[in-house]
Predict the structure.
Amino acid sequence: MYCAIDFGTSNSAIGVPGPGQEMLLVELEPGYRTMPTAVFYFAGAATAGGSSATARSFGRAAIGAYVDGIEGRLMRSMKSILGSSLLDQTTDVGAGRAVRYRDVVAGYLQHLRRCAEAHAGAPIRRAMLGRPVFFVDDDPARDAQAQAALEAAARQVGFDEVHFLYEPIAAALDFERSVDAETLVLVADIGGGTSDFSVVRVGPKRREQLERKGDILANHGVHLAGTDFDRRIELGAILPEFGLGSYGPPRGANPPREVPSRVYFDLATWHLINTVYTPQRVAELRAMNHFYANPVHHDRLLGVVLGQLGHDLVARAEAAKIDVAQGGDAQIDLGLAAPGLNVSLSERQALRAIQAEIDAIVVAARHAVALAGLRADQVDALYFTGGSTGLRPLAEAIAAQFAAARIVRGDRFASVATGLGVYARRWFS
């Protein structure tokens, strides 16, 4: 028995062999084959075994517990800490308890494995895991550390045999199932944490080959994607209402100075939000009241920190991005943080906030094709997968670079997992 795991920044999936060794994605939650990469630790709760350190829920249940206001700690985007110094640090999860970030990742993988074993009715000891082209940009040593950390977490939860495949290549294998002639495809896999591009030669005569190294003409990526868009939208549209970019009062002959911005950038970064809630940071923030010419901004910011509403603001930025991507303006209700406060976000404003990220992602796509030794007009197909390809301006900006290519849209959330399953079946069989 074996499995294929797509451990994503925003969503994850796991597949196991079905009848005739066809790989099937496990229903991780009722009606869903993919599950948010989220863990919620319940403060002061205990498991049936008596250990409060592991009282937690996963996926939509984890997000639901947070939204319902249950006391505890929500963890998301755990993949983004692989390769960082945070991995071996501990973080508070309530009631005086702390866990290592490394163990948070392992606990989530363990949950995926248990779901798959319950579906398969047998132990699973072998795993094919996806990985981005780069966990960490421009740092091969940290990138290798990130993969090693993910492999160690997988082994920690009981996988004896662990292999890796680039996620955009897995998506190419999913695309290959539908082609009837040899095709040069540029796979654009843009998820929550990374934007990865691979140029792959696919075709019906190549499908059953185990060794496909010669068909991978190039791969390239950047550590920019959906969570970076959310962060930019929060910084550009939401946090100015709490003082970001504002100025303090004049001091004698000195001109007004901009208020310190570190707290705002930390509040907009998932894995740093909880660092703002420590007693030391709260005391520092209280003492900053004289930095603000408008005391309302300081009061609102202090309310966010004391109410531990940082994750809520990120979620509202993400929801606004999705609303804008579907057409029209978005209304962002910030009443939980500041009663009666609403802000509007237009597509133009959203695009302006994330334009630098879009430009960098487009450059990465063109660079991947150049690395393959191809001109843009030699790309036969452009295959979009990953949740962030639903952002229309981004997809259009990439497609404009390859006007001769036919546009194919895969399952934004399951293409990588399906392709990993295709390769796992060939590898382990």
User: Anything to note?
Assistant: The chain is about 35% helix and 20% strand. Residues 46-53 have pLDDT under 50 and may be disordered.
